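Regression test attached.
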Amino acid sequence: MPRGAVLTLDETWAMAKLWYHDRLDPAWRRRTVEETREAFASIGLTGEFWALS
Amino acid sequence: MEELLKDVRLHIYAQMIATAAAPAAAETARVLAVPVDAVENAYRVLAERRMLVLRPGTLTIWMAMPFSNVQTQFTVIAGGRAYYANCAWDAFGVAALLDADARIFTTCADCGGALERKVTGGVVTERRGLVHFALPPRRWWDDVGFT
């Protein structure tokens, strides 16, 4: 199993809300790479592990 | 095409929320009054766009994230119904998607003990525990089942 990253439950909940709060919006679409990077950064997920390229 | 994709996607989620099971393409076609082959193609396109995951080599929905259409280690009770989520993140994701209080049941990956965590009023009320992300996001889709 890779070492990976560890999040607290509050961090996981923040990530879940960020990712899924709008999933039932008819206009929902997947985020672009840049939008995903910005979304991760907005909840403090930065650094090499969370880098998208 | 885009309108059909939207309708199909929303129907899949509506069924998943109402029944905790994803609809077959034929069922979606019947409800939407659309030819089955058009809906089957929509399932393929949604999967290609990573908006859902099909069981390999089939048109059966495996994941309509955060929901799982197969049994997993993450059970979420919300809105009077039990759902399976794909992972810990998705278990909280079910509560976020439904904007509902939720009870999440799983087992500790470290000690094997039973765990229950709650989201109540938009807050995680029992914060003990950690969530392990084995893979970085750039690799999540290499093997989304493992992820």
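Expected vs. actual: identical. The first strand of chain B starts at residue 53 and ends at 54.
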